């Protein structure tokens, strides 16, 4: 077990979790809480940032493994919210909001993957 990697995850996770909390609160204030806007925004932006990091690791940054783990598993892992996505989806279904459920599920999956692909192409185009 590599304690440096564990520390990298823990520190990055703390940062990502605080960022997630702040974005979630901000989205709730900006857009209301009837729809899980915060989680949707976090999943999309988290996927985009993950794509930027992965792209930079591939073409520009030669970082030590601990730094890569800090950024991806730590910060991005603490920030992104697919476990919360599942809970939000459940609550939408439970409330009988099937159209909102479908929009939320499709938007989260398609836009997050699209954001990652866009980031990878953006970063690869820089090299």
From TrEMBL:
It is found in: Cell membrane. It comes from Afipia carboxydohydrogena (Pseudomonas carboxydohydrogena). Its main location: membrane. Signal peptide: none annotated. This is Fluoride-specific ion channel FluC. Na(+) binds at residues 77, 80. Fluoride-specific ion channel. Important for reducing fluoride concentration in the cell, thus reducing its toxicity. Keywords: Cell inner membrane, Cell membrane, Ion channel, Ion transport, Membrane, Metal-binding, Sodium, Transmembrane, Transmembrane helix, Transport. Na(+) is not transported, but it plays an essential structural role and its presence is essential for fluoride channel function. The chain crosses the membrane at residues 36-57, 69-93, 99-123.
């Amino acid at each position: 077990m590599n304690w440096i990697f564990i520390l990298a995850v823990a520190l990055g996770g703390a940062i990502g979790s605080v960022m997630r909390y702040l974005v979630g609160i901000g989205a709730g204030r900006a857009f209301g809480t009837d729809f899980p806007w915060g989680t949707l925004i976090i999943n999309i932006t988290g996927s985009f940032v993950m794509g930027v990091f992965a792209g930079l690791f591939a073409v520009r940054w030669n970082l030590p493994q601990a730094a890569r783990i800090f950024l991806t598993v730590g910060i991005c892992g603490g920030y992104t919210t697919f476990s919360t996505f599942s809970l939000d989806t459940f609550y939408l279904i439970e409330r009988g909001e099937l159209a909102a459920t479908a929009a939320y599920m499709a938007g989260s999956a398609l836009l997050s993957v699209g954001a990652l692909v866009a980031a990878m192409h953006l970063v690869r185009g820089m090299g």
